[in-house]
Design brief:
The structure is a homodimer of 475-residue chains. With 475 residues, the first copy, chain A, is of the alpha+beta class. In chain A, 43% of the residues lie in helices and 18% in strands. Chain A is globular and about 95 Å long.
């Protein structure tokens, strides 16, 4: 007997899982549409040349590449002269949603509006080591606004994602906000050589986890930065130490939480303005933070914004605002979304530089947390049908089908039991498919032009007319 | 500059196209759900061993296979000893939705209900030669009912697909119905040796296109069948010659069409019962046809059923009813769906034989025809937003965002123009994104706590309160 499991790192989604996924995707789409974002879909398979050298060495290794086909391949194999894998492949699977977007923007330039606001919810594939919550096929939910440098775009994105999280039922979350220009300014003020800035950022990014002393020790151990720079970084870290009241453990956020965040943000801005002094890059960064805090103030993101001056985010391509959205959790915040401004990347396939801001929601993680916390709505269907119609004998099948047709015209989801089994068996099946009602159309019911409707939860049953049954079922 | 086209045979779907695809998929899902079918999704990537030898030689050739990764591959290449492509690949892309379904049924046996009714709408990949309407990535919409031999299942499937086509706006279509057992009986009665039956079926299937004489000539040329068999086949063809009134060219089908189909079906059944005589396989086939005609009589497929005794359908695995749905067209019928009963296939990964009936809708073809015939509903959104909010100056951005927030709370789709460009430019953008309204929030409007709402179609504009604007926009 063959192996019937899905391939390693891949998943089958049985009906209940599909429904949960579709529910979350539906909320995301609905909100993005309200913000004027439009749907885009790109193919699963891209030319290899479109994808290579876009994701660094790791990306090239984790990418799924497709074997060449037909004569080309067989000739190559026959020749016995294969130097490297690139001779065997010409196509690869989508690895993220940003590179395809950049390709689309370059390819359909004249068909797209001046500002192109798109969302894209599609799977990507990475031959990563599978782990809990990490799969080789997983969905990305990206939203990007192309073509404007205005920070209104950042504010709109953050408002939209806040609305999504609220709609899904997440009550406690923070939007950590920083700006690459501000980080740039800080590194300059600390006198850190451009070659060593990324190393310094990587250490700083860990501040929350390992603390000030360890960050400075790590940098000192690397022997790249001089003592004065390390001292200055220490001063910067001190300037970020603004302590508000701690999270009070309540489920709902309230005005106090918002006020706490606001006062921390203000103190931090003050401290950093002092620290940065006349540094121009730093001033631009501070200005950017202020603007976004101001613009989001009346939006759905209001009260959720936390200026977080050590947030760096890994990707090298960010050029302005960066953000990360974390669910407040008893242990440590769970990151479920991130993004930022990247004014250099979208133009990679063309000649011009095209400004862009984007944000990616971690669908698989959101689903996992919602599952753990039991956050799916009660009225999400967990069943195949609203009602199961029984079959009395093969001769009365027409009656069952006719009734099914009537009930469906009234918007009900109906399954007809296909075989003239004993009623007990048919009821057992209703249980299996979670049908809340069973409608028995037996000999006497047919004679009287009635049906017997049984509520599977309460066990109540009554023999009523079809019209009455429709009304009861639609309730 | 790099190539920015999608890979050969692949397509990007820009927003308007995504909306059309989602509309059609939405109708299909909604109807299947009403019939008690549940959604299933399987991974894009399957183990190669799951897919090989399931689709015949052509399938193995057209399948997209994935190159092995990492050390395994580099060692193999270094060894210089590669005998065939199977040493280079271990995974492949989904080629259809039936084999994954069979794998799922075997793998989750205990989690699935006794009768598993699933629909699955996902892309598949075939390295076919691209042509008009034929792509290398295309969606299949499959619906299958697993676990019952009852023909109620066939009737329900045909009712569902009829309802889908009617909902999409297809008025003239026929469901051609035949039965493999009936064909079996005919070939037996004609004295055709089992080894030559498939050849005879392939020729018969062309009857509509090439006519009786050519079919018989073709069979005679092949020199496989004896003269008596060919004569008997000729008699069979004559028995299928039941001529009703011709299609009257009207757009709507009416009672006359239904009556015409019914009387042809009856004459055909009579003729074939005579032709088949006591042949048991043939009798089973006739019985099956009668049952399905009877069961569909009160369903959504009522009046659409055409018994079509020469319909054979290519796939070898059908065991009972077979059907094909064609749109009536001035030239020749356009096939947009097909399926049948295949009681041997689903059990391929397990030990037991599991009965099944399925049907596949040709999504890409349906979309193409709907596009050509202009069948998409007028209220299908073809725009990014219901209203564009202008930006007066950077300082008034907060006002625009606040209003956007208000309008969105009322369910409107709103885009905020992100830059303080001249109003003319902002209106031009509203045209680009097809926004039917523009809401100007200028200096005087802000002072008066009003907005100026412009209808982009009529050119009318008025300065009104926000509440009035909401009411107007929601209309």
């Amino acid at each position: 007997m063959s192996n019937t499991n899905p391939a390693r790192g891949m998943r089958d989604f049985l009906p209940d899982q599909v429904r949960k996924r579709e529910y979350v995707i539906g909320v995301i789409k609905e909100v993005y549409e309200k913000y004027g974002f439009e749907p885009l879909e790109t193919p699963t398979i891209e030319n290899l040349s479109t994808l290579t050298n876009k994701y660094g060495e790791e990306g090239d290794q984790l990418m799924y590449k497709i074997l060449k086909r037909g004569e080309k391949l067989s000739k190559k194999i026959e020749s016995g002269d294969i130097k490297n894998e690139n001779e065997l492949t010409d196509l690869a699977l989508r690895y993220d949603l940003t590179v395809p977007l950049a390709r689309v923007v370059a390819n359909y330039k004249n068909d797209l509006p001046k500002f192109f606001k798109r969302y894209q919810i599609q799977p990507v594939w990475r031959a990563d080591r599978p782990a809990r919550g990490r799969f080789r096929e997983f969905y990305q939910c990206d939203v990007d606004a192309i073509g404007s440098k205005s920070m209104i775009v950042e504010a709109e994105l953050l408002s939209a994602v806040s609305e999504i999280l609220q709609k899904l039922g997440f009550k406690r979350f923070s939007i950590l906000l920083n700006n690459r220009k501000l980080l740039q300014g800080i590194l300059e003020v600390c006198g850190i050589h451009p070659d060593h800035q990324s190393v310094a950022l990587i250490s700083l990014d860990k501040l929350d986890k390992i603390g000030k002393d360890s960050v400075l020790q790590e940098l000192s151990d690397r022997e790249l930065l001089n003592e004065k720079s390390i001292d200055r970084l220490g001063e910067f870290i001190d300037a970020t130490r603004v302590i508000g009241e701690a999270y009070d453990g309540s489920d709902e956020e309230d005005e106090n939480d918002y006020k706490r965040r606001k006062s921390i943000n203000e103190s931090l801005l003050e401290n950093l303005t002092l620290f940065l002094g006349p540094n121009s890059s730093g001033q631009l960064g501070v200005e950017g933070i202020k603007q976004i805090l101001d613009l989001t103030n009346k939006s759905q993101a209001s009260g959720k914004m936390s200026f977080f001056p050590t947030l760096a985010r890994g990707l090298a391509y960010y050029t302005g605002a960066i953000f990360e959205i974390g669910l407040d959790d008893e242990e440590s915040p769970l990151s479920i979304a991130g993004g930022g401004r990247y004014d250099g990347l979208i133009g990679m396939f063309g000649k011009e530089e095209i400004p862009a801001v984007g944000l990616s929601l971690g669908l698989e993680r959101i689903l996992l947390i919602m599952e753990e916390r039991g956050m799916f709505p009660d009225d999400l269907p967990t069943r195949a049908a609203d009602v199961l119609l029984t079959l009395w004998t093969e001769e009365t099948a027409g009656e069952s089908l006719k009734l099914a047709n009537q009930l469906r015209q009234n918007g009900l989801r109906v399954t007809v039991y296909p075989e003239a089994d004993k009623l007990g068996k048919q009821f057992k099946y209703a249980d299996q498919i979670n049908a809340p009602f069973v409608c028995v159309i037996g000999e006497s019911e047919i004679a009287e032009n009635k049906v017997t409707l049984k509520n599977m939860k309460t066990g109540e049953q009554e023999t009523i007319s079809v019209d009455e049954a429709v009304l009861k079922l639609k309730d």
